[in-house]
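I hope you will forgive my troubling you with a question about protein structure. You will find the record immediately after this paragraph.
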Amino acid sequence: MKEIIVIRTSDPDGSVFRFILDIFQGKDIQILHADSRKDSVITLGDIQIFPEQRRVLNQGAEVPLNYGEFSILHCMAKSPGQVFSREQLYNAAWEESCEFGTNTVDNTIWRLRKKLEPDPKHPIYIKTVFRVGYKIVEPERAER
């Protein structure tokens, strides 16, 4: 009986893949396809976002983000300049509709600014669009 094993993993340096190959060394196996694509990276000034790893670096240092923070940041970073309503960001993070009157998105944006902005009171990345929502801008296009 032949067995088919499918392995999918986030493996930026290939170490997991090499470990798995070592396990099968000496066995009668055939590798049909190995995808060695690199993770996509979204770069905004000093900020690097690694979606597949749910990882963020700011000036090369790891920034710990919770699930909602990362989801909202990633949603906006995929479309710099696009304005997102609070409802859209809430839905992107938690995949459910936002209850009227909740300030969850506003609090999450505040925490993101504290973690990512050089001066959270004068943000250069995460902008408020009055009475609409939020957008993320690339630093060279940032309004100061």
Strands lie at 42-44, 47-50, 55-58, 61-62, 84-85, 126-129, 133-136. The longest helix spans residues 104-116.
